[in-house]
Recover the amino acids of this structure.
């Protein structure tokens, strides 16, 4: 439905047409992410999988500590809340589909981090500490 009035400029018309077409498809609000009907269950599964897979990293490594904190938080909220909007609001990091996509990325990263052993420092390496002082 087009509101009565003057014909909009070509750019506006193109944007209007694009918006009209996109609103016909249900998306998760992120380009390229389709809405997942059972997103809560998928998020719970992915968070559980991340928490299991990250155990290949030493428990004292900051990467593992951070990943565990984040995904335990996601899991706790997704298990407690049943409504999509409440989960998204409580986690406050985007849509469930975005969180699921991020978990998939984390699952791809975990074996690489394990291979790189980023927690190990060669004792012969010289680490320079640089302190930046704000300009007065």
């Amino acid at each position: 439905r087009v509101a009565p009035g003057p014909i909009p400029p070509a750019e506006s018309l193109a944007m209007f047409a694009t918006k009209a077409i996109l609103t016909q498809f249900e998306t998760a609000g992120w380009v390229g992410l389709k809405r997942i009907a059972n997103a809560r269950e998928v998020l719970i599964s992915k968070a559980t999988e991340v928490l299991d897979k990250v155990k290949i990293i030493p428990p004292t490594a900051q990467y593992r500590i951070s990943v565990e904190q984040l995904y335990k938080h996601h899991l706790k909220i997704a298990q407690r809340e049943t409504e999509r909007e409440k989960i998204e609001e409580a986690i406050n990091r985007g849509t469930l589909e975005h969180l699921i996509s991020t978990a998939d990325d984390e699952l791809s990263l975990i074996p690489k981090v394990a291979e790189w052993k980023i927690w190990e420092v060669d004792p012969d390496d010289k680490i320079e500490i640089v302190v930046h002082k704000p300009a007065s």
